[in-house]
Amino acid sequence: MTLPAGVYAEAYDQDEALIRTRLQWIWLLGLLIFLVTLPLYGGAKIIGSMNVTLITLVAVVGLQINVGYGGQVNLGQSAFMGVGAYTAGALSLHLHAPIYVTLPAAGICAALFGSLFGLAAVRVKGFYLALTTIAAQYVFAFAMLKLPKQWFGQIEGLRLNPVSFLGFDFDTDVRVYYLALVIALVMIYGAWGLIRSRTGRALVSVRDNDNAAEIIGFNVFYYKSLSFFIGAFYAGIAGALWAYYIRYVLSDMFSLWLSVWYLGMLIVGGMGSILGAIIGTVIIRLLQEFITYFGPWVTEIGILSDVGAEIIFSSMNMLLGCVIILFVIFEPRGLVHRWNIIKESYRIWPFPH
Amino acid sequence: MISLVSHMINGALAGLLYALIAMGFVIIYRSSRVFNFAQGEIVIVGAFFFWSFTQYFELPIWVALIFAFLISIVLGLVIERVILRPLVGEELFALVMVTIGLLVFLRGAVLVTWGAEVHFVPPVFSMKGLKIGPFVLDRALLYGGILTILIAGLFSWFFNKTRIGLEMTAVAEDHQIALSLGLRVKRSIAAAWAISGGLCTIAAVIFVSGKGMTFVAADIGLAALPVALLAGLESIGGLILAGLLIGVSMAIAEHFLDPLFQGGVGAVFPFVVMIIVLLIRPTGLFGWKTIERI
Amino acid sequence: MKKQIATLFASIFCCVLLVAVQVRGEIIEYKIPVISDFTGSWAQLFKAWIPMQKAVFEWWNDTEGKKLGLKLDLKHYDGRYDSSVIASMWPGILSECKPIMALGGGGADVAALQQRLSKDEVPVFYGTASYGYGWLPDQWLFQVRPLYAQEWIAALLWYIQKHPEKKPLKIAFLSCQIAAALDIVNGFEKYTNDVLRPQGLAEIVAKEFTDTNPVDVSSQVKKIIDAKADIVMGVVTSAMSSAYIRACELHGVNIPTLASPHHTIWASGKAMKTFAPFEGHIVVAAHAPVTDLNHKSYAFFQMLVDKYGLDKNLYNPYTMMALNQSILALRAVEHAVKRVGRDKLSGRAVYEAMFAAPFTEAELMYTLPTLEFTRDAPFCNKDLKVMIETVQDGKYTVADPNWVPVPADIKKW
User: Fold this and answer.
1) Distance CA A170, CA A177 (A)
2) Which of A325, A327, A333, A337 to mutate to test the interface with B (most CBs of B within 10 A)?
3) DSSP one-letter code for A254
4) 3-state SS of chain A: helix, strand, coil percent to 5?
5) What is the pLDDT of residue A303?
6) Contact between C239 and B118 using a beta-carbon 8 Å cutoff
7) Which of B43, B45, C322, C359 could form a disulfide linkage to C52, CB 3.0–4.6 angstroms apart?
8) Does B222 touch chain A if contact means CB atoms closer than 8 Å?
9) Which residue in C has a C-alpha nearest to residue B7's C-alpha?
10) Are B211 and C246 in contact (CB < 8 Å)?
């Protein structure tokens, strides 16, 4: 196979295609086959962390649309996820609604809750907005603990049975993996389509300069709310998946820290790129898993005593903090930028980049 | 009735403590347009240093206080120099994320250094309450509140009347323009971080004086957010008013709503007030109105 | 006759062979995962737990374990007291350890695991007391202590008996918004209103709420004083307890609190370097009192100190939880081996063994009273008794040298 000297389209169809070269098709198919067959050789440990990764991915891709494309700082993603989880949980518990009802319903409810805070975005900007969305967290926690016990169980939370689809129970890690994989792929595909549409471009123009966007005829009010609506919709879907994986929903699970991590994933991966959201999620999740498994290993081989273990784990927190700080300072456009450089230099080879 | 008034007075004093912590936010924001999410963590680092000096090195309280104060100033300077200086002129997201990274980092550092046990901080002020008529006031919070008002007055004057203060304010407006006018942007930002670090220690000592604390106490940084936002992120004098407003309204809300909701109103109420006010006045009560250009 | 002798010999031979295999056979090793919290909100507790868990397991491996041909190795995981962390690492733990049981941390892992344990077939043991919302049948998690509310009600009745002049006792709640605290308040309130108030024994006069890490509780305490409360309940964090003590000093009163040992006196008193402010306060738990060094459980602890290098300062309410948790888990494994043999040991075997026979006080090294588990609750709900401790003349000590019974008429709420 010869290397391409630049990628060029010969027809409009080619120019519009999401996947543009044969090599990309090969890579994509390879990746899909890998993901679908992963449970065959992956082992339970990998499937377990993949489930959480896929769920996180859905929430982070949504956050990318909201923050990276829409330009609206959002520190409430985890609360929106919680709304989705509670919606899906309550619907399947009380009404025995099937998954094809609960999943969209979870998305919509979270989206409505999200746009409530998006309304503030119309008037409030920048840091003010970041902090307003923190309020979503407090309102969510308060509401879930105080609403009637018959709805959301208050402090007891909601306990769910495995979700089933056409008589098929998603009751093992592997089965949940396929559910999460399919949903995540659909959601990512949707995100890719969305950002290339008129709506996506409108979001970007509002992000880049909302005053200018308004003057050239975009309804800024609508697009800012929409940005929160979409971001929270993704969070809601992620929350529903979470509810079906853990089968227990409690407001404590959806803490402000989770939102902070999601933003950290965006920074590491790169703002304003769906691929960046994916890369960031995978890298940070790998780092988290590494810490989870590295800690016990250190104590096991006996380099350090028990007191040492405690210090190791605490130091890991410091390490994660460092990673975020270093990325912001030295690679502010995220890993996806590095990846694009590599890709470009490959494409225009043999010319120097 | 007496119970309600007593509740309101205590709420006002707690509100002033929030205002003092929020002042740390505001001074940094004024000079560098950075909102420091790690403020609560810096407060706790100051408190832990104070604990170390009194309990571990067994220094007299006032000496320990001065040492902790100096260390916090140094900490502020180090954070500015190492983390924020490379980001001067970067976009908002970078600044949000870097302080969030700092928060995660400092939380780990506190755990590594001091561990997770309860640390009891010796009282700086007498633990006996001050009796005024039917009301009993906490001395630490009362003196702290008075100190907060004095400091707020001092800094208001400093930033609005003195040459250096006005320079720092000008730096906040636009780093590039300030630089081209010959103002020392870096020094100004460094000074803001140093001041903020020092304020954090004062807040820490008032907050934990005579109490047990763990690293979780850093959450007070989040509790102080609504006060900073309500005042508008630029106004120092406004903080006092916002602190009192939040503290008193929270006390009233707790008094009447807690029995209905089985408690918990106190945590969420300041945020609700904040959102409502921001919807009416998007830059808070006293924030600067900026004119945006296309 | 010949045939019978042959059979006899054959069976003797078989027995000898079995014993030989038993003695010479490899010791079977199991990895026991421990869900800990090194960097989350309860790190202070877990730091004290780990050496205790290790010492108890080492002791067991050396003694009972050797007899049974088993070795149980602890493996600590940092769950950060965060259910999403625990949920993502649990499948990995399952495949890595193939656990026959696990030691749990607290609420966060209960939330993450409760729904799946019966399918994973891993019983998980907890060292804490239980909550009303966890009072469900057929659970795979086991708690060494009954409900907090049960323990507290027992202590309250004891207190009423000691202070008949205060009848009806005026109870005030000073509580916070964490699920655990609200649950205790709910359970306690129901019992007081349904049982105690009609008998004229106690009534609730105030219900105040504060943050988990409060700045100041003086106005709440003022209301409690105005309501003329005799006892305060619901102080469940050390930050709350030190703020409460401070507010009491402020108002110049001392209304005793009733709580669990790890909530108030010990943690705050140790940090303050004096127990004096807690004069007359009481703590209650359904396990041996840490202040009574003549109690038989202390002898066991002393042995761990002497032989397994445990720090002698580790006999306190925190480590007691780890001690209880470990000892119950280990005895459960023994019971299971006795039922199915060491080769068929599995999570289900340990689970079934929990209900097969009671765990006697002697088996539990006297740190716990005799426990008898049934399928209708994740804790022992039969013949419950508690120990009560207090501060007397500035000294943290037992309030009553005898076990105090828990009333049996406490209903689910």
Assistant:
1) 9
2) A325
3) S
4) 80, 0, 20
5) 47
6) yes
7) C322
8) yes
9) C219
10) yes
Q: Phi and psi dihedrals of B162, rounded to 5?
A: -85, 160
Is the pLDDT at B226 greater than 50, yes or no?
A: yes
- What local confidence, expressed as pLDDT, does residue A309 receive? 58
Classified as helix, coil or strand, C207 is strand
Instruction: Say if CB C52 and CB C322 are below 8 A apart.
Output: yes
Nearest to A246 among C94, C115, C119 (CB): C115
Q: Chain B partners of C223 at a C-beta cutoff of 8 Å? A: 3, 7
Residue length of chain C: 413
- Choose, out of B105, B254, B291, the residue to mutate when testing the contact with A (most A CBs < 10 Å): B105
Distance CA C67, CA C330 (A): 13
Put simply, the answer to whether B127 touches C211 (Cβ < 8 Å) is: no
Peptide linkage before C51 cis (omega within 30 of 0): no
Helix or strand (DSSP H, E) at C76: strand C70-78
Q: Looking at this protein, which amino acid is placed at residue B250? A: M
Which is higher by pLDDT, B125 or C127? C127
Give the whole-angstrom CA distance, residue A282 versus residue A50: 9
Write out the H or E segment, with its range, that includes residue B136: strand B135-137
Answer whether C75 sits within 8 Å of A296, measured CB to CB.
yes
CA distance C80 to chain A (A): 9
The pLDDT tens digits for B145-197 are 999 999 999 998 988 888 888 888 887 777 778 888 888 888 888 899 999 99
Q: Is B274 on the interface with A (CB under 8 A)?
A: yes
Q: Do C50 and A295 touch (CB under 8 A)?
A: no
Alpha-carbon span C88 to A289, nearest angstrom: 9
Query: For residue C343, with 0-12 CB atoms within 10 Å meaning exposed, 13-18 middle and 19 or more buried, which class applies?
Result: exposed
End-to-end Cα separation, chain A, in angstroms: 21
Q: Which of A173, A89, A138 is nearest to C95 (CA)?
A: A173
- Predicted pLDDT at C125: 94
- A260: which chain B residues are within 8 Å (Cβ-Cβ)? 100, 103-104
* Residues of chain A contacting C107 with CB distance shorter than 8 Å: 252
Give me the residue label for tokens 């909302």.
A210
Instruction: Evaluate whether A353 touches A7 at the Cβ level (below 8 Å).
Output: no
B259 touches chain A (CB under 8 A): no
Query: In the 8-state DSSP scheme, what is residue C413?
Result: -
Distance from the Cα of A44 to chain C's closest Cα (Å) equals 6
Query: Which pTM value belongs to this model?
Result: 0.85
Judge if the upstream peptide bond of residue C317 is cis by omega within 30 degrees of 0: no
Residue A347 has a CB neighbour count (10 Å cut-off) of 16
Q: ∠C183-C244-C250 over CA atoms, to 5°? A: 155
Q: Helices then strands (H, E): number in chain A?
A: 14, 4
Would you give the DSSP letter of residue B53? Answer: I
Report whether pLDDT(C52) > 60: yes
Compute the distance between CA of residue B40 and CA of residue B204 in angstroms, rounded to an integer.
9
Return the residue in C213, C226, C413 with the most chain B beta carbons within 10 A, the one to mutate for interface testing: C213
pLDDT along chain A (353 residues), means of 10: 60 71 85 90 83 94 93 90 95 90 95 86 74 87 86 82 81 89 94 91 88 87 91 96 89 85 87 91 85 65 53 71 86 85 79 65
End-to-end CA separation in angstroms for chain C: 68
Nearest residue to A162 (alpha-carbon basis) of A222, A107, A228, A89: A89
Contact C356, C232 (CB under 8 A): no
Closest alpha carbon within chain A to C95: A44
Which H or E element spans position C331? Answer: helix C317-340
Q: Which helix (H) or strand (E) holds C206?
A: strand C202-210
Under 8 Å CB-to-CB from B123, ≥6 apart: which residues?
B140, B209, B210
Q: Which two tokens stand for residue A165?
A: 């689809």
